[in-house]
Amino acid sequence: MNKGRKFQDILKEEQPVVYQMMYNSLRNRKVSHAYLFSGPRGTHKKDTAILLAQSLICENGEVFACEECNTCRRIRENTYGDLIYVDGREATVKTEVVEDIMERFDMTGMEEANRKVFIIDGAEHMIDNAQSKLLKFIEDPMNSSVTSIFLSENPERILPTIISRCQRIPFSPLSEEAVCRECEEEGMDPLDSYLLAYIYKDKETVLAMKEKKDYLKVKTLFIDFMEALKKDKNQALVEVETALLTSKKKDKKTIKLFADMVSLFFSDLLKNKTGNDAWYNQTLDFFKKTNYNNYNSLNACLIAQSRLAPKERNSAPLVLEQMIYQL
Ligand SMILES: [Zn+2]
Question: Does the pTM exceed 0.90?
Fold first, then answer.
């Protein structure tokens, strides 16, 4: 979690529609018994579910929870007695898991507030039988103190009968800028945050990629390549040939990643945009002062990127060489 910033402020900035929907229902006390948060990975679905749980239970907040009191902290750390979080993102959610929720929530609440919340992350991974059981449970008026929150990247795989009982809240992909800022706030190197956020657009992937050998190798090559390109295109080509094209493993993914970085650079140059890293910005400044044809260069990169797409069968080293010649 970002230090010093309340999640509700991040939500307001990065998912304004979701923020407004939640704000309205909390302020008007029209909170639904069941929610479906749908949208791609890395869009703050889980953080928002936790904020909703906190806002239903915390006594210190105004519309949203205070996010600071003991109750809010326990909810965030998943040690609050009347909150159940099921992580179904990587595995199927079996009937027993649902039965366990029903059993725990059948009794009087463990906490004073007697307000219970369960969150099922990856709700599409619940087996049908589990979904049917849960449906009966959420429909039972006896369970009016229970709020159910389903999180899903593929809501079309959830039973329509469940979906129809839920208030649906769609989450949009975060902007590259937001992903980059969040990664930097977590202490990532600025150049890594920038390159990876703009190429992969999803924080989880960025965090997984940043230590990978292939990525680090390509980043170093990208820096060496741009430095060489300042002087001489042939020298730049030699850098790439030595690093990527003569190695035994002429991995298409690695070559594509390199093309993605060069493409990002020329796209920024053409748009007169700056990055967040000193070396990157100095390099942009250098090329701005030369009479490089930025439009042609970007075009060469875009063609190479499309020819390196997974379904294409072109020779990756050849595509890359052609791209560099046309820069
Ligand atoms: Zn609180």
Answer: no
| Sheet strand arrangement including 34-38 | 83-87, 116-121, 146-152, 34-38, 167-170
Q: Give the distance (Å) from ligand 1 centre to CA of residue 7.
A: 12
Report how far apart the first and last C-alpha atoms of the chain are (Å, whole number).
41
- Ligand 1 centroid distance, CA of 58 (Å): 4
CA of 80 to the centre of ligand 1 (A): 12
Distance CA 214, CA 209 (A): 9
What spacing in Å lies between the alpha carbon of 298 and ligand 1's midpoint?
Answer: 50
Task: List all residues 6 or more positions away from 45 whose beta carbon is below 8 Å from its beta carbon.
Answer: 37, 38, 39, 121, 151, 171
Q: Find the 13 Cα to ligand 1 centroid distance in Å.
A: 21
Structure tokens at 200: 């992969």
Helix (H, G, I), strand (E, B) or coil at 88: coil
7-170 is a CATH 3.10.180.10 domain = no
Q: State pLDDT tens for residues 241-288.
A: 888 877 665 688 999 999 999 999 999 999 999 999 999 999 999 999
List pLDDT tens digits, range 164-219: 999 999 999 999 999 999 999 889 999 999 999 999 998 889 999 999 999 999 99
pLDDT digits (tens, 9 = 90+) for 33-70: 999 999 998 899 999 999 999 999 999 989 999 999 99
Give distance in angstroms: CA of 69 to centre of ligand 1: 4
